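Reviewers of the previous submission asked for a worked example of the structure-prediction workflow described in the proposal, so we include one complete record here. The input consisted solely of the amino acid sequence. No template or homolog information was supplied to the procedure at any stage.
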Amino acid sequence: MQLKQQSVNTGARINYENYSDFLADAIDVDFDAKRKTRCSQNTGKDEAEFRGTNTFADAVQLARGGWDDGTKLVAAMATTMTSEITGHIVEQTMYLDTTPQYCWDMASAVAGVPQCGVNFAPDQEKPLVRIAVNLSASAHISSDTLFLRAATIAALAECLEFAGMDTEIVIGGAQQERHLKLQVLITIKHAGQSIDTSVLAFALGHPSMVRRIVRAWEEKFYDNTLYDAFIANAHYGHPIPLVLDSNEYIHIGPETLWTSATKSMEWIKTTLRQYGVHLAD
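From that input alone, the workflow returned the following structure tokens.
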């Protein structure tokens, strides 16, 4: 879906089915000359530290072409966490009983779990776990913390899929200023797709995503009333929880940030257990 210069109305919630459509709208910049305050375009030493890039053009290049250094770092961190956690997941190695459609989870049997017989249904649809991440992050959040957020979400999805589930990942931002509420949601991984680490690394791990690319989207599509309320004084409202279409999401809000890989892995393990995954000590 592309908005093609349509204004976003008060209280609007805009959903993009993929990352590329969102970028097409956010990056195809044609600003109204009357709009003199555009935070996405700000330059200077302090701005470069805050937004992670010297210019908007630099952010566009990373968003389109990929963030190689960040992708490698996020992939390495996610792989380390995934390897550690999946080593504790009790795999359901199937040993067939005399009944062809019935089998035993021998790990559970050895552990003394009475309910260790399961129906063998290889064609059964995988359970879907939906993950929603609020992109907002306070100005004092370090780049290392953002890296870890991206790696944590990637590791969570990989662990869930290792345990036999499917995943969907949605990212977005929601802001409020007085009575005005605005939200954009972008699906960066659909069920059945593999994780695009390049997209995930930039979208969740680089400050330019929310502080330049999402800001450009806001500056481009808010109508004049919203622009005056949100942007004219370089203020884009306060982060608020995402409004989702169901309660089935694992919702990672702006306050959910991890300061170490150990804490990330403990959170992932807790989440896996909530979805019925059996982890060995």
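The radius of gyration is 21 Å. We consider this example representative of the routine output the project will generate in years two and three.
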